Fold this sequence. Notes:
The protein has 504 residues and is α/β, with parallel strands linked by helices. The chain has 2 domains: 198 residues, Rossmann fold, CATH 3.40.50.1980; 190 residues, Glycogen Phosphorylase B (Rossmann fold, 3-Layer(aba) Sandwich). It is built from 20 helices and 15 strands. The strands form 3 sheets. It has a 7-stranded parallel sheet with strand order 3-2-1-4-5-8-9, sandwiched between helices. A 6-stranded parallel sheet has the order 12-11-10-13-14-15, with helices on both faces. Strand 2, helix 2 and strand 3 form a beta-alpha-beta unit. Its EC number is 2.4.1.-. It is an enzyme of class 2 (transferase). This is Glycosyltransferase. It comes from Pueraria montana var. lobata. Keywords: Glycosyltransferase, Transferase.
Amino acid sequence: MESFGVEGASEMLKAIFLPFISPSHLVPVVDIARIFAMHGVDVTIITTPANAAVFQSSIDRDSSRGRSIRTHVVKFPQVPGLPQGMESFNASTPTDMVAKISHALSTLEGQFRQVFRDMKPDFIVSDMFYPWTVDAAAELGIPRLIYVGGTYFAHCAMDSLERFEPHTNLGSDDESFLIPGLPHEFEMTRSQLPDRFKAPNDMTYIMKRVKESEKRSYGSVFKSFYAFEGAYEEHYRKIMGTKSWNVGPISSWVNQDASDKASRGHGKEELQEEGKGKEGWFAWLDSKKEESVLYVCFGSMNNFPTSQLVEIAYALEDCGHDFIWVVRKIDEGEARGFVEEFEKRVQASNKGYLIWGWAPQLLILEHPAIGAVVTHCGMNTVIESVDAGLPLVTWPLFAEQFFNERLLVDVLKIGVPIGAKKWKNWNEFGDEIVKREDIGKAIALLMGGGEESEEMRRRVKALSDAAKKAIQVGGSSHNSLKDLIEELKSLKLRKVNGKLDTVA
Length: 504
């Protein structure tokens, strides 16, 4: 792998990466850190013990390949009432623990800053939810790059909402409106917007701080690629007035062999506890026809009530297509009992396969039997599905996911909406239940083989080809990363020679 002309150890760039403590942010930031290490940067990832366990096997493999990368673990603070080892936000995080985890994380800022001072990096890459790192980097006189989760499209749309406020003074939450000032026209309803756009809340303050730190950063890093949303990459630079680099699709760039793909985002201990390993689902998929199986997964942060699980189960059972359904943790009780009985039925008929908890998504998506994906429109799954050349049934739930749906359905035309109408908080069920009939209609349109379905498949295959070219030598993301590393090297050299007073 090209290392962009790295010289001796003294000239090697030294970087610190600080990922946020939720899987949807942790895994991509670690992947980006690994990509930098692939290209000759000395990388240290700072995190806490339970979060390190999620990705340490990948770091160990990279280190054994001769890459200069390691994990620096900082002990997670003990907070009264917070169980040992509960150090991240995910679908299993009890609501009453969220504030305790947030408080513990806030007390780590001082330790993180001290690690920065001790390690003396040439630059810092931190998650967007650590806005204080822009000041920490300024104190050290080094660049801070911000990792921005989600799509350029979503961030441009949210900026437009903040500036033009087209969602105010509507007759109802279900009334459609256009979001102005963007390269494409598309409509949304107020019910699909995050709560902070309807009334100020804690997230309003958090996102204001994030945006301020974003504008003060040396630049931003996204996990997208130019062919996917290049018009919005350019629009983002204009509205933010900052530099930005697109370095995706990151998952396929850094996870290039089966061992990487099999354990990405999953600790060794958890993998052993699963018991089934790869053999069960892999053998099942091998028995299926090409592009005949639907992959159903709603990410690491989602919770569904029993009533919604029932609708999903019956829709899958009645749709006439084979499926793999990744079922997140369900507590004992009515919901678990129902899903376990459902699993027995679809196993007996050989029409479905359930994976409980974590799934080796990269390996599943690249299997030729997979024909389409039902997704919550989280950016990780979206990009990985597009990279694999798979069209999507879109079922947004929270965060920026309703914006991502508009990109997939209205702009790229590679997705079919399930009909979700209400945004909800990540750790709440919400009161909207999508009916089995609507789920079935979306699946039928995408898997039915009609003209519209075939056209979507052609478009997503073209994007898949573009994704693969983007990370090859001379591709858009490869050039973007190369330019960024060369720029950071130049800054370091000027600083060493005493010709640089500031990196702003």
